Amino acid sequence: MCWSATADLVAGAGVTAVGLACVTRVRGVRDLPLAALPLLLGAHQIVEAMVWDAGGGSGPATVVWAVIALPLLAVWVPAGVWCAAPPRARRRLGAVLAVGVVTAAGLAYGLAVGPVTAEIRGHTIGYVTDLSHPVLLIAGYLLATVGSLLLSGDRRLLTLGVFVAVGALVCWALWRLEFVSTWCAFAAVCSVLLLGWVRARPAPR
User: Fold this and answer.
1) DSSP string for 113-150
2) Farthest-apart Cα atoms in the chain, separation
3) Are 65 and 54 in contact (CB under 8 A)?
């Protein structure tokens, strides 16, 4: 997620603050799950600071990090988008949410039966777990998270989806090269975009 424990803590605190701003400005209860996403992302980065301090390994912080990153986000994002979406978009988003639930079940099973390990590699952390059918799980994960934003029927969420797709590709490339992890900065920008979405939402009738 970030390039050091300190960076994770600072970014996590900042993203959490944005999350608090999001949830306190929500005008409709259906927007609350998506508005609370930055709180989850902030907690995720704080957990990874603990992984850094532990020197990696397969301890509780590593497991919690993997649970948030994999099965939880695979359900949280499409569920939040479904709740906030206009009625005309909910049918197609229901199918995307179902993909997210199935994907999350496969990811959760993999985490339950196999160990999750973290290895510090310079300015990045590599997480390793044994998943069956990884290509299908990755495809389902991307459809559930990025796809739900692109199919949301909301212009601002569509813009966020495009940013997530492009930004995640750039962050993944930098991480794969073991140059530096920039996921925390990516999460911070996404959180600020969500705050803009919350502010622009109309009051419920």
Assistant:
1) HS-EEEEEETTEEEEEE--SSHHHHHHHHHIIIIIHHH
2) 52
3) no
